[in-house]
Design a protein that fits this description.
about 170 residues, mainly alpha, Arc Repressor Mutant, subunit A, three-stranded antiparallel beta sheet
Length: about 170
């Protein structure tokens, strides 16, 4: 449809801008949004989307601390299971070596961890927390407790327990 003089390009589409905006808002509000029916109830996809949403919320809540969820996972592992090699950390958290190195570099720059050569294997590095790292981990875990409460707020207490039990069975 040609755009007539005095009309904007949006007006020239034959659809009023407000009705198009309303349709977009309604599609976002619909359960499943723009997903095709074959994806709306696919459990692995729903788990993936929930995981993305949870991690995004965690990263947002941890940002004031200067950490993200992955870094908090690393701090938790080395604080509770110290010392650990970089490789065992990467394996346990399913993080590739390059990304693990970058995350550890950042944690080391912040003074939260230190790396030293493994005494029995000069090719490996042991990662352990500093005192600042232990404090940051404790604060971060408190933030993640609140993140979990916020994320799972739509579920009743019994549903939260059931969800945790079901997910543990899938591990």
């Amino acid at each position: 449809m040609p755009v007539h003089s005095g009309m904007t390009a949006k007006q020239g589409t034959g659809m009023a801008p407000k009705s198009r905006d309303r349709r977009k808002a309604e599609s976002r509000a619909r359960p499943g949004g723009e997903l095709p029916p074959s994806m709306r109830n696919r459990v692995p996809f729903l788990l993936y989307k929930a995981s993305q949403r949870s991690q995004s919320l965690a990263n947002e809540m941890l940002s004031d601390l200067g950490l993200n969820a992955r870094q908090t996972g690393i701090l938790t592992m080395v604080t509770e299971l110290e010392p650990m090699t970089q490789k065992s950390l990467a394996d346990a958290l399913a993080i590739d070596r390059t990304t693990m190195t970058s995350l550890l570099d950042d944690l080391e720059d912040k003074g939260y961890v230190m790396r030293r050569r493994h005494p029995a294997d000069r090719r490996a590095f042991l990662v352990q927390p500093t005192e600042s790292g232990r404090i940051a981990k404790a604060v971060a875990v408190g933030i993640l407790d609140e993140q979990q409460r916020v994320f799972l707020a739509p579920l009743a207490s019994a549903e939260r327990e059931q969800l945790a039990d079901l997910l543990k069975r899938l591990q």
